[in-house]
Amino acid sequence: MARFGMVIDTKKCVGCMDCVVACKTENDVPDRFNRDWIVQDVRGKNPDLQMEIRSERCNHCDKPPCVYCCPTGASHLHDLGGVVLVTHDMCIGCKACLAACPYDARFIHPDGYADKCTFCIHRIEKGLDPACVSVCPAHCMNFGDLDDPNSRVSKLLNSRKNHSIMPEAGTSPRIFYLV
Amino acid sequence: MNEYTTTRHNELVDPSLHIWGWEIPVYLFVGGLVAGMMIITGYFLFKGKYKDSACVCRVLPLLGMIILSAGMLALFFDLDHKLYTWRLYTTFKFASPMSWGAWILIVVYPVMIASFLINVPEYFSKKYPWMNKISLKLGEHKYAIKNIGVINMLLGGLLGIYTGVLLSALGARPLWNSSMLWLLFLVSGLSAASAFVHMVAKRADERELLAKADNGFLILEMFVIALFIIGMVTSTKVHNESALVLLSGIYAPVFWVFVVGLGIVIPLIMQLLAVNHKIKHTPIAPIMVIVGGLILRFVIVYAGQYTHWADAAF
Fold first, then answer.
1. Would residue B117 count as lying in a domain?
2. What does the pLDDT read at residue B122?
3. Residue B207 lies in domain
4. Residue B282: which CATH number?
5. Which stretch of A130-134, B57-61, B121-125, B224-228 has the lowest confidence by average pLDDT?
6. Chain B residue closest to A43 (CA)?
7. Are the C-beta atoms of A72 and A92 separated by less than 8 Å?
């Protein structure tokens, strides 16, 4: 079975926010909310500074606390690639999943249900890349099956130094950043 | 030195999580209070004290149902997709404390109704004679009443414990991620319930017993708070930082003054003096205990939302 994930090259990312705009357009994300966002992480002491620009979103964790804590089963792992999804008409808006997510990737949609990145499930079902990946002008984003050793994401992870965000939170995130 | 900027500005999530307002702390407090009331009712039923017409266990089930219903209404206010609330009862999710809670709340009502029917207050028995008939039938089975008492204590315990587990299962908020939280909420619920029952009880010996019990619970609560904080301080960096929110951070004044000082220490001193007949019993100490218990839920829910794993990276 596939296990979808992303590999994002921080050496190529320029933080243009095309991925953010593409997501908002593709998924009709309402005002005041984002399913993906850009983080600038600057570390070190002047003048020895290091900056990492990251396009962040739901990590579609292997061990998703948002799915475990959901009292109705609205939050679930989809059969296709283990994508973490929310069934809108099962969600009661209790917000337990928002509290459970160490990445704060979720929000409450103005219509009342919990909403988040879906890896553009409607696109990947057709074999397309998620909207954010397909528009990236720097070609820094890669989407694919982490369990397939021949996929582009697996090859990149095997060949380049990389890290995920806050693996210490214990959720086994599936988005990796090349450094 | 790190500098971190994000373009995410999601309502209720940034700059720090604030998804739960007054509804959840109020509900968690009410859950704990009613849990304590059920345990006290169960104790009196088990001990056979219900035979006395002045026993407080005659009014507690009805009061419990009213208070718990008000708390559940607060919980309902918090839901953002209200039309789909029934979805809670089409499934049971073993890993979700909230699912456990939804079902515990359903099971609690029949037990409280049964406890209510053991001794129907006069007002109802005159208006609805059929209640009296059930009451008389139940009175013939002493062991059934004892069992209802035991079930009251067990379910009360479950209800009180779940309100803490609900938060401690959310590992993304380090302050909640403590295995002491269920005990803290259970003991706080028991002390608030003792204080409440102390005020509504008519019999002097019951009032005295509950004041003494409350003193015990308050002392225990102080130990649990100490262990809760020691557990945080001796854990990982994110847990250390979340403990600082209570020890010296923005929630420290309200925590130490209103929860520990005015909610535990001062009423404990007052009640210790009262049970030793140095001063008279007044409603002041019990009210302080109850308000302190409510503020404890507010502090834990608000401060917990303020703490975060990502802080470790900053």
1. yes
2. 82
3. 23-313
4. 1.20.1630.10
5. B121-125
6. B2
7. yes
Domain that holds residue A28: 4-178
Is B269 among the domain residues?
Answer: yes
pLDDT single digits (tens) B292-312: 999 999 999 999 999 998 744
Query: Tokens standing for B10?
Result: 């999601």
Domain count along chain A: 1
Q: Which residue of A has its CA nearest to B177?
A: A100
Distance from CA of A85 to the nearest CA of B (A): 17
Residues from chain A contacting residue B2 (CB–CB below 8 Å): 41-43
**Which of A31-35, A175-179, B91-95, B139-143 is the least confident region?**
B139-143
pLDDT reported for residue B2: 82
Domain count, chain B: 1
Q: Is the CB of residue B94 less than 8 Å away from at least one CB of chain A?
A: no
pLDDT of residue A1: 78
Cβ–Cβ below 8 Å for A99 and B169:
no
Asked if residue B71 is part of any domain, the answer here is yes
Portion of chain B with pLDDT greater than 90, in percent: 85
pLDDT tens by residue, B93-116: 999 999 999 999 999 999 999 999
Residues B81, A112: C-beta atoms closer than 8 Å: yes
CATH number of the domain where residue A164 is located: 3.30.70.20
- Identify whether B247 is part of a domain: yes
What DSSP assignment string belongs to chain B? -EEEEE----TTTSSS-----SHHHHHHHHHHHHHHHHHHHHHHHHTTGGGSTT-GGGTHHHHHHHHHHHHHHHHHHH-SSGGGGGGGGG---TT-HHHHHHHHHHHHHHHHHHHHHHS--HHHHHH-HHHHHHHHHHHT-HHHHHHHHHHHHHHHHHHHHHHHHHHHT-TTSTTT--TTHHHHHHHHHHHHHHHHHHHH--SHHHHHHHHHHHHHHHHHHHHHHHHHHHHHHTS-HHHHHHHHHHHTSTTHHHIIIIIIIIIIIHHHHHHHHHHTTSS---SHHHHHHHHHHHHHHHHHHHHHHH--GGGGG-
Measured between CA atoms, how close is A120 to chain B, in angstroms?
19
